[in-house]
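During the no-cost extension, the postdoctoral fellow (Dr. R.K.) reprocessed legacy sequence entries with the updated structure-token encoder. One reprocessed record is reproduced below for audit purposes.
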Amino acid sequence: CFQRDEEYNLVQAGSIDRTDVDPHDRALFRASFSSYDPFKDPEIAGHPRLTLFVGNIDYSVTEEILMRQFRTFGRIKSLSLILDEVTGLSRGYGFIEYEDESGFRAAFH
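Re-encoded structure tokens follow.
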């Protein structure tokens, strides 16, 4: 565990015993120099500040059930229950994008 006065070291933070000085692979090196802006990502269709992550969902819950429960907070623009690619079963989490901030805030609180 790092103390507040210690400098954060990306490589050592990912090390089991905090003694590593070289990255295990290029991923840590690339990550340390990367920047990500969700507003500029063409793969993201929804608004990140109006999208609610919902976790710990029972595996029997369907998108229809989620829609019924969460539309009480506001108008939903999109809803995605994440499914396992192989089995087609729920992975237990999803994303709900609201049309406006008031719906998002009501659901969040």
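The helical segments are 10-13, 26-32, 63-70, 101-108. The mean pLDDT is 82. The remaining legacy entries will be reprocessed before the final report is submitted.
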